[in-house]
Each structure stands twice: as structure tokens, then as C-alpha cells.
Amino acid sequence: MVKRALLFLLCVLLAVPAAFAEGTSAAGSSLDEVIVEDYVEDDGMGEIVGQADQERPSIEGLTPLYTTKIKLLTATGTAASIRAQQDETSETLGIAGKGDTVTIYKVYPAFVLVEFEGVVGFVKRTCIDENTTTLDPETTPPYGVMMMKYVATTTGVAPVHTDPNNSSEIFPIVVGKGSKVAIIDFTQGFAKVLYWRSYGYIDATLLSDLVVVSPTDQPMSEDTPISAFSSFFKYNNGVELNDGRVKNIVRSCELMTRVLQPGEQLDFNAQIGPYKKANGYFPAPVLIDGGSQPGYGGGTCQSSSTLYNTVRQLPGITIVYRRPHGPGCARYLPMHQDAAVGSDSLNFIFRNDYDYPIRILAESTGEGVITIQIFKVSE
């Protein structure tokens, strides 16, 4: 856990210029300025793979999806281990060197199933280049895209389990009552969700108002979203200023909810920002000089990253500009799935290239989850 935390700090520092802290920064800027990245503590469970999701390393009956190169986080790294399980302590079946090309057959939150020179096994997503080649673009979504099948509302406090049974371990973030949650699928009476870099499971008896997400970008009805996505965040955890981070996520949801006309762009910094007190934002932990300090707008990167994952599901949306949070990306989402905001170099911009308007609906009660849905607006 300590190694992961230190690595994340290094990654963000490599990717981001100085943020703005309480009082003044080194350049003399005041607290009430644009910030660049919020600080998120490691929960120690971000890459757990439950028993239900453990699979043997086999490509039998599978179609190859992507090819990519081994790309390591550190300059001194030379190779990636091909593992027998989705566990970095499991048996090493083979080695792929830096720059070697591997073929991806399945994508999981923290690993990919690959074949390299006849060896089949699991490689951590932190060891591969996100600039993959899609082998059949007509039938395969872009690398990292995760389609959701449903959206539901929690009827009470909802724990997220590591396996689809109530006796399994519970993740640290417990979702509050009345929260919208995007669901991958249902299994054994549980809703399967994406939790940080893991799969999680919510007891289906704690969910209501189930809505089907259209499997294509043509809605089944005007009330059917054409894409949806959720990410999870800590709240009421006793960490100084985390309450401000939660409020900033809620505030950014209010500003994200809008209609985009055909050809219209959304510029996150320009339209969801500025990240200032006058725009309804609060001080929250931000990463500065390797440590956490107060800065306005901390938390908005999780909002922009959730929106990024929602729009990536739609072929009629064009990503104009996006940057990750350094080589290690943000831990509250799978590797390569984040979009940092908060400075000239860190922003998220996309364009509606459909011939119809789309409506973005971003929601969060402030209790553990942000969910974004996109709808086709009827003429």
C-alpha cells in the first residue's frame, strides 16, 4: 500500500505543474485560483479481485481485441510479468520486455489478459501503453471503454462487497441512500459495479427504479440513457477538508448537467470552472510539492474523469483534448481511464458530433458515488 501511495505521488508530480495552496503559491498566487489536481488517499483495496472474478489464463474461444506495447511507469523498468492470476504476487508464467508488442484478449479493471510469444496470462494495466491498436473497430469498443447495462437508485445505505454475497469483504466506501449507480450487470442477486480498479457487488434488494441503458447510441425510449458511468469517492471519513472535496463533486454535477447542441463543445475548465469560491467551490485537499494542502476545487478531476468515461461509450462524441494524471493515472478509476482538469495543460474538451442534441445528467448525493448519464434529446 505504501509503495502504491508513493508511486502515485511521483506520477502526479511528473504530470502536473504547481497547484495553488492556501495563502499563496511560490509564484504568489492566492488560494482563490485554479487548482490542478485533488489529493486522494489510497484505500488499500483499490485492486482487489474477488473469488467470483478470478479466471484462469486461457484465450480458448476468445477473439483478440487489441495489440499494444509494454510501457512501464519507471525509467528503470525493463519488463512486465505475465501472471497466472490477476494478482501481482501470483506465479510468473513469462516476461514481456519494454517495447514488446502483446495481444490483448480481455480487459479487467486492473489487468489485461494477453498472449505474448505463446505465453498467455495476466499483465497489470500499469505496464501497457494505452495507445492500443483495435483489431476490429467495427465490433470492438475503444480500449478501456466499459459499457453499463442499467442505472438504479439505492433504497438505503448500500455496502459494496468484493464478491456477490453478503458475507464477503466490504469495500471502504459505502453508498448512501438515494444515490444513482451505474451497473455492469446482475449476478447471483447482486449488481456488479466498477469500484476503483476492482469490481464490486451491491445487494440488488437495496436497489430500485431500475432503468435500462440502451446497448447502442439509439435510445429505446426518451427516458433511456444512451450511456452511463459511476465512480466512487470517500465521504465522512474524518480526513481534513474531504468534506470540501465532496461538495465540489456535487457542485460540478450541477454545472455539468446541460444540453449540448450538434457541433457544440464542452470545455470543462471554462464551463464547469472556474474553480473558485465565487463559483460555489470549496477548499479541498490538493497535491502540492508531494503533500496535501488546501486548494479550491479539489475533487473536480473525479467529476471530469467520470464524464470522460461516460462520453467515451458514444461513437458520435469526439474527444478534442484530454490529459491523464501522470503515468500512473488516478486511482479511483482503472488505469488509463481518467481526465485531469484545472490548468491550461490539464483540461477535458469534447464535441457533440451527433446530428441531434444530447443531455448530460450528472448526479451525486455526496455520499460515495457520482453517476453521469447521457440522453438523446427528442426533436
Helix content: 10-25%
**Major beta sheet summary:** 5 strands, antiparallel
Give helix and strand order, one letter per element, not per position: HEEEEEEEEEEEEEEHEEHEEHEEEE
Shape call: globular
Mean pLDDT score? 88
What can you see in these coordinates?
By secondary structure, the chain is mainly beta. It folds into two domains: 51-134, SH3 type barrels (Roll), CATH 2.30.30.40; 150-376, no CATH class. The protein is built from four helices and 22 strands.
In short:
With 379 residues, the chain is mainly beta. The protein has 4 helices and 22 strands.
Topology:
Blueprint: H1 2-15, E1 66-69, E2 79-83, E3 92-97, E4 101-107, E5 111-116, E6 119-124, E7 133-134, E8 150-154, E9 180-183, E10 185-187, E11 190-195, E12 198-203, E13 207-212, E14 227-232, H2 242-256, E15 258-260, E16 265-267, H3 268-271, E17 283-288, E18 291-296, H4 300-311, E19 317-321, E20 349-352, E21 358-363, E22 369-376
Antiparallel strand pairs: 1-4, 1-7, 2-3, 4-5, 5-6, 8-9, 8-13, 10-11, 11-12, 14-22, 15-21, 16-20, 17-18, 19-20, 21-22
